[in-house]
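Late entry, written up from scratch paper. The run itself happened at the end of the previous shift, but nothing got recorded in the book at the time, so transcribing now.
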Amino acid sequence: MQTAHELFIHELADMLDAERRLVDALGEQAETAANPQLRKLFSSHQAQTEKHVQRLEQVFEQLGDQPEQRECKGMKGLLDEASEFKDERPSPDVLDTFTIGAAIKIESYETDAYESLVRLAKSMNHTKAIKLLQQNLKDEQDAWKKLGGLAKKVKPERTGHETEEEEPRRSRRRAA
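Output as recorded:
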């Protein structure tokens, strides 16, 4: 890789793979979410992510390039982490809390990637690409804000830090 254009194409292909992975992951997250607001947020963001894929494909078309097959290792790692947590069989409320946090990490990753792509596109005067990438960036920033707001509302029912008075009562009940 020797030019900014080659780097730009490389990073676009990386994001295209990331967004395609997310279309599937968001569908799964919507299905497993116990909280109705979270389910709705994941479903609507899945539709939005499908548009992100289309916009990235448009950028490739405008540039006259074909995306190379890439694996976005960053996104794969974030999604693998979430999948492995589900394998631990957490309670539904704990899973929702974890999933919101994992989704916030993903949105942060995407936001940083799109900011970088926009900077590269600006440096090369890819005006049409800038507009499409900024639309995706705005969507990711909005999703991050919505998830942050939901994170304040969705909390696990049990903290695991019961007061000293509560703990002995439970112990006595079990012993009886």
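Residues 164-176 have pLDDT under 50 and may be disordered.
(Scratch paper discarded after transcription.)
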